[in-house]
User: Fold this.
Amino acid sequence: MGPVLGIETSCDETSAAVVDGAGIRGLAIASQDAHAAFGGVVPELAARAHIRALDAMVSHALSRAGLESDALEGVGVTAGPGLVGALLVGVNWAKAFAFGRGLPLLGVHHMEGHLFATSLEDRDAVPPFVSLLVSGGHTLLLEARAWGDYRLLGQTRDDAAGEAFDKVARRLGLGYPGGPEIERAAASGTPGARPLPRPMLSGSDGPGDAAWFDMSFSGLKTAVALAAAELEAGDGLHDAVADLAAEFQEAVVDVLAEKTARAVDLTGVRRVVLGGGVARNSRLRERLAERLGAGCRLFAPSPRLATDNAAMIAAVARHRLAGGERSGWDLNADPTLPFPGLDSSAAPALATAEGGSG
Ligand code: KG4
Ligand code: ZN
Assistant:
């Protein structure tokens, strides 16, 4: 299959990309900075900004690829999960574009995009592997047996890892998005100086228990808020921000690394692929490499492919379109789109898990 155009508008990045058998031919990403002043994504602003930016992103992607639109052989677009108004901009744009040119169309699940991202840069980052997907909206631990054939092992029961970074950053008076701000502040702090809990690391018996693989970050976030309030009532928060950021980051990273190592032990698959915005965190990559050891290969996306981008969406679409899949012209945005091919019954541990995809 030839070049495929990908479109991503699920949150606050407007992105278009052209991907073919050789990898990324052209990628354009516009990050919306209007949200920073509000400390989080404002859905209506996001949708409007997508409308303004999308045409230009597609033109950039095509010109970087050195291609005219008539060279395209398919179109993929994020159909969910995400903000419904934001998703609708991309879905409607892609439908009109594909229909007008007689191209096959595929609605893509955003998190399957994150799963494919690293394979665009490293040909070995293909199934079978264990994957830790850590974004602003989701935290998933799964086994990819083949593309399209996934087994859910664990997930967060409340906040996603990225969401916890964003909320803690806000509480500590740092900017948005919170992940990079926490990482920067943590660099001059000492983990352990102000101890925080490692939620769901102990108190579970083993792989037969959902808690063995599941995660929870809401209580950790509250622990930071309590520590911050205590400091504000005493000596002041300002001097403690770096230490709190360092300890919070260390706690999240400890939990993610341990749960991932457990998934490797359970499956015996000694290959781990990271995905999602939190995969940008260098302490996470360092700690994972340490915990997994030399006998396990760790694949991580480069920064631009860790956070939201359309190349990963084009990669999924190209794979599924080549296999004969098509979306109809009635394709709609679905904020709660289920992960395709994700078997959540296979893991005995998950029988008792209490929903909450984050
Ligand atoms: O995958 P992504 O771009 O968007 C979603 O699908 O949600 O992930 C965005 C998330 C945000 O929560 C952001 O704070 C987090 O990724 N993030 C980081 C870092 N860079 C971005 N978290 C920790 N450390 C980072 N360096
Ligand atoms: Zn994402």
Observations:
- The longest strand covers residues 23-31.
